[in-house]
Design a protein that fits this description.
single chain, alpha/beta, six-stranded mixed beta sheet, 16 strands, about 10% strand
Length: about 550
């Protein structure tokens, strides 16, 4: 561990603070420092009591109102003897922390612009707005490769399937984050997106050979390390090839990276040269829990190379497991010291101890004015305009004509909370254009008594809006139809009878389930900026300039026509 070198670059005074702080810590404080739990309460007394008993090194709140988050972070920082790492999933804008922040755009939308400037702006907006409420640690950028279109969790969270694009976008995000004085946690090492399964539900597998990995994910992580990311998030993802390489024997059981000395120490630290902090992905995920009993896994994750333990099934129990693991020798003294000093070094690199003295760990309420400022909105609108992609229009439907396509049947695909607001936004904008929009409802739709002729007499255009969001704990991210043995009007049976168009504001691969639809647009996320820009483009007032960062045809020629 070299605290004066990349990525910490600590001065002698900062190293002294790390060493002096470590020497004054009790065992209970050292154990607590290893944890970064989710915090739910915002009650002042409960927060003070939590810090006083758990001595945690970091915290995370889910998205919330900016003023409330800022005040909670202020209470926590004032209560903590050692300044806290305050984290957030700042993957797609300040809205990842403060709900009134800017929804800049999912990483795949940014990638579709093919602009490093937009990736830089993503990092700058996300982290500037996160910092405004007291966040100093971004669990981003995602530098996975979206190699498997069946994977339900990588998808639009990634910069796509091109190694070169992921590298330039990831480095640009890091640059923007640094300017906001926020640490990045590139994720999910050793790389998600090869397996079609979600590591939230099981230990997924990166099945590439060592050579294939070196030329892809290995190259990406090498570049992220060179760019100076302070931290790396390890996923609950196994990589048998490198396990076999380092052990020189066949793997009999998959081991998640979060518990693998081979992947964390021999590969990430020794081969790739990463000297910064390694944090686990969320440990309530089954990909971690299924590997072994939790009493062993909690301390072993630190012993085998992680420095910080993210989230808990039960904080008090995990704390006990960690301490008992240390007392039993599962967690060694050397690894405990190394992990704690890396945590402290990360804080020193962010100058948190200096900000603590100046009472500037959390900005005052005026900083909330940075949320969703005009410049950030302008950048987000530009990103939407430059990223939205016309995948195909083999029927030459576009631009739409109000006279020819007056009566629209709008079909919302997906069962997410955002469905109603997305539908309402599209309907409002299309109505202003002069269209008469009918929203399809699955209750009471025609089946047995309907006919092709009567259906065509009612509508001039069928518009599908795919709002299948990327969400954890789902085995698939596909289209599901409301149907009775093929008769449901929710299905695109009418693709050869009349104009049909599909606009996805989520998963970009829906042509797999709807290859018969001849006009297909990918918007990659459901922000108001994207919806606004999509309408401008289908009306012909704005050109489609986005470049697909993935193969939207899923390697199948039949989807292209």
């Amino acid at each position: 561990m070299r605290l004066n070198e990349k990525p910490f670059y600590l001065t002698k005074d900062q190293i002294k603070w790390v060493d002096d702080t470590y020497k004054t810590m009790t065992l209970e404080e050292k154990i607590g420092q290893l944890f970064c739990p989710i915090v739910f309460t915002k009650d002042e007394e409960e927060l003070k009591g939590f810090i006083d008993t758990m001595h945690v090194g970091g915290v995370l709140y889910r998205e919330g109102e900016g003023k409330e988050l800022q005040e909670a972070h202020r209470i926590l920082q004032k209560a903590s003897k050692i300044p806290l790492l305050v984290s957030s999933n700042l993957e797609y804008g300040g809205v990842g922390s403060a709900i009134e922040g800017t929804y800049f755009g999912r990483e795949m939308l940014v990638a579709a612009t093919d602009s490093e400037e937009k990736a830089y702006q993503l990092g700058k907006v996300s982290c500037t707005e996160g910092a405004a409420v007291g966040v100093n640690w971004s669990f981003a950028p995602v530098v996975d490769l979206d190699y498997n279109y069946r994977n339900p969790i990588t998808n639009v969270r990634t910069f796509g399937s091109s190694v070169e694009r992921v590298i330039k976008m990831g480095k640009a995000y890091i640059e923007g984050a640094k300017e906001a004085e926020v640490a990045t946690a590139v994720k999910h090492f050793p790389g998600d997106g090869v397996d079609e399964r979600d590591q939230h539900l099981l230990t997924s597998v990166n099945s590439l050979s060592c050579k294939e990995w070196d030329e892809t994910y290995g190259k990406i992580y090498t570049e992220m390390i060179e760019a100076g990311t302070l931290t790396v998030m390890a996923g609950h993802i196994a990589m048998p090839a490198y396990e076999e390489y380092f052990d020189n024997k066949t793997v009999s059981k998959v081991i998640p990276a979060t518990l693998s000395k081979n992947l964390l120490v021999h590969l990430l630290r020794e081969k790739l040269g990463f000297n910064g902090l390694i944090v686990t992905d969320a440990t309530p995920m089954v990909g971690f829990c299924a590997a072994m009993d939790r009493a062993s896994a909690v301390p072993l994750s630190i012993e085998n190379g992680c420095d910080m333990f993210l989230f808990n099934r039960n904080m008090e129990e995990d704390y006990r497991f960690m301490k008992e693991g240390y007392e039993k020798g599962i967690l060694s003294e050397n690894r405990l010291e190394e992990a704690i000093k890396r945590i402290l070094a990360t804080k020193a690199a962010l100058k948190l101890h200096e900000k603590q003295k100046e009472e500037k760990l959390v900005p005052d309420e005026k900083a909330l004015s940075l949320l969703r400022i005009k410049e950030h909105e302008k950048w987000a609108r530009e990103c939407a305009d430059q990223g939205i992609t016309l995948v195909k229009d083999t029927q030459s439907l576009l631009p739409l004509n109000v006279k020819s396509h007056k009566r629209i049947l709008l079909e919302m695909m997906g069962e997410f909370e955002s469905n109603e607001s997305v539908a309402a936004s599209f309907i409002e904008r299309l109505t202003k254009e002069g269209f008469a929009v009918t929203k399809y409802e699955k209750e009471g739709f025609e089946v047995m008594n309907d006919s092709v002729t009567s259906f065509k007499e009612k509508y001039d255009l069928i518009l599908y809006i795919g709002n299948i969001e990327t969400a954890s704990n789902k085995t698939v991210s596909r289209l599901n139809w409301h149907t009775m043995f093929g008769l449901g009007n929710n299905m695109p049976w009418m693709a050869n009878e009349m104009p049909v168009m599909f606009i996805s504001v989520g998963n970009p691969y829906h042509l797999l389930d709807a290859p018969m639809i001849k006009t297909f647009v990918n918007g990659y996320c459901n922000s108001e900026y994207v919806i606004e820009a999509v309408v401008e483009k289908i009306m012909g007032r704005s050109k489609f300039v986005g470049k697909s960062p993935v193969d939207a045809f899923c390697g199948r020629d039949d989807l292209k026509y």
